[in-house]
Design brief:
The protein is about 55% helix and about 10% strand. The chain is mostly helical. It is elongated, with a radius of gyration of 24 Å. The protein starts with 9 loop residues before the first helix and ends with a strand.
Length: about 325
C-alpha cells in the first residue's frame, strides 16, 4: 500500500524533496538551454531512478514508490492525484528505466523536431495520463502499484503514427537501424494487444495500449500549427530534407509585409528600415534582423509605447511592450 501522509517525518520529506529536484532539474535545464526536451526527459527518468534506488538502499523500503506510484485504490483521493504524473518518473528496475528512456529519446527527439517542444511536452503528458488513467479504470480498487514511463513512450509512437507515419528513425526493432515509423508503431502496439489478454507478468500492457491510443487520437489537433506540417514526407527530421521541410514550414507561416499598422505614418530611419524589411524580408534571419531594428526605431501605433521583437514558434513578430493586443505584426 501507499504511505499515509501522517507518517511522513521531516527527514522523509527532505528525501522526497531531493528526489523531486533530481527529477525536475534535467527538464528545467533542457527548457532554459533550449536543448531537446526528449533528452531532458530521458535524463530526468534516469536521475530520478538513481535517487529512488539510493533511498531504497538507505531506508530499506521504497519511499518514492509508496509516495508516488499509481494506486487504483486511492484513485479518487484528492491528495493522491499527483500519482497519475509521478508514477511515470518511478521505475521497478534499471532495465525498466533504461528501456523507457531509450525509446523516449530515439522516438522523442525526431518527433520533437516535428512538433516543437511545447507540443511535444503536451503529447508526452497525454501519454502519461492516458496510460495511467486507462490502467486505473481497468484495475479499479486494486492495491497493486503501477509505475513507469511506458505509457508515455507508447504515446509518442501513437502520435508519430498519426502525423508522420512515413518518417524513418533509428530504433532497435530486431536490428538497430532506420525503420519506418509505421512499422515500429504497429509492431509494438500489435504486440501489446496480443499479450494483454493472456499476460501473467507484472507488465502493465493496458497502460501501454491506452497511452498509445490517447496520443494517436489527440495527435493531429495538437500537431496542427507545429513546426512541420502533418504528413510531410522527407524520410525524417534527422535528414537534411527534414531540416529543409521544417525551415520551409516556418517560412510559409510568416506574415504579410505588404501592409503595416502605421498606415504610412512612419518617417526617417524607421521608414527606411520598413522599406528594407519589405525588400529583404523573405528569409527568416534577414526578417528577424530588420524587425529587431524597426522595434528600436518605431512606436506602437495605438499607444506610442515601445516595441519588442518577440519570437513565436520560430517566427519574429513586433509586439507592443505595454499591451500585446495593441500590436502583433506581421
Amino acid at each position: 500500500m501507499g504511505l499515509e501522509w501522517s507518517l511522513m517525518t521531516t527527514t522523509l520529506w527532505i528525501y522526497a524533496f531531493i528526489w523531486l529536484v533530481a527529477a525536475l532539474s534535467p527538464l528545467v535545464h533542457a527548457w532554459i538551454k533550449r536543448t531537446p526536451m526528449a533528452l531532458g526527459i530521458g535524463a530526468s527518468l534516469i536521475l530520478a531512478w538513481l535517487v529512488q534506488s539510493i533511498l531504497v538502499w538507505h531506508l530499506d523500503f521504497d519511499l518514492m514508490r509508496a509516495l508516488g506510484a499509481l494506486l487504483p485504490a486511492w484513485a479518487l483521493e484528492s491528495n493522491e492525484m499527483h500519482r497519475y504524473i509521478t508514477a511515470a518518473w518511478l521505475h521497478a528496475s534499471t532495465i525498466h528505466v533504461l528501456g523507457n528512456a531509450l525509446v523516449i529519446i530515439l522516438v522523442g527527439v525526431p518527433l520533437e523536431q516535428r512538433l516543437g517542444r511545447g507540443r511535444f511536452l503536451a503529447i508526452y503528458l497525454i501519454g502519461v495520463l492516458g496510460g495511467n488513467i486507462g490502467w486505473t479504470l481497468a484495475n479499479w480498487g486494486s492495491t497493486t502499484f503501477c509505475l513507469g514511463a511506458s505509457g508515455a513512450a507508447f504515446g509518442l509512437l501513437g502520435c508519430y503514427l498519426a502525423c508522420w507515419p512515413r518518417d524513418e528513425i533509428e530504433f532497435p526493432l530486431i536490428l538497430i537501424r532506420r525503420w519506418p515509423v509505421a512499422w515500429i508503431a504497429l509492431f509494438k502496439f500489435g504486440l501489446e494487444v496480443l499479450q494483454y489478454p493472456t499476460a501473467t507478468s507484472n507488465v502493465a500492457h493496458l497502460a501501454h495500449i491506452t497511452g498509445f491510443i490517447a496520443c494517436y487520437v489527440l495527435a493531429k489537433p495538437i500537431a496542427k500549427g507545429g513546426l512541420v506540417p502533418i504528413g510531410t514526407v522527407d524520410s525524417g527530421p534527422s535528414s537534411k530534407g527534414g531540416q529543409d521541410a521544417q525551415h520551409q514550414a516556418i517560412i510559409t507561416r510568416m506574415g504579410d509585409l505588404s501592409t503595416d499598422p502605421w498606415d504610412g505614418k512612419l518617417t526617417g530611419t524607421a521608414l527606411r528600415t520598413l522599406q528594407r524589411l519589405r525588400e529583404e524580408g523573405d528569409e527568416l534571419e534577414t526578417r528577424q534582423a530588420w524587425l529587431e531594428q524597426l522595434a528600436e526605431q518605431a512606436q506602437c501605433p495605438i499607444c506610442n509605447g515601445e516595441l519588442d521583437a518577440v519570437e513565436v514558434e520560430g517566427i519574429t513578430l513586433l509586439q507592443c511592450s505595454l499591451d500585446s493586443e495593441h500590436l502583433k505584426w506581421p
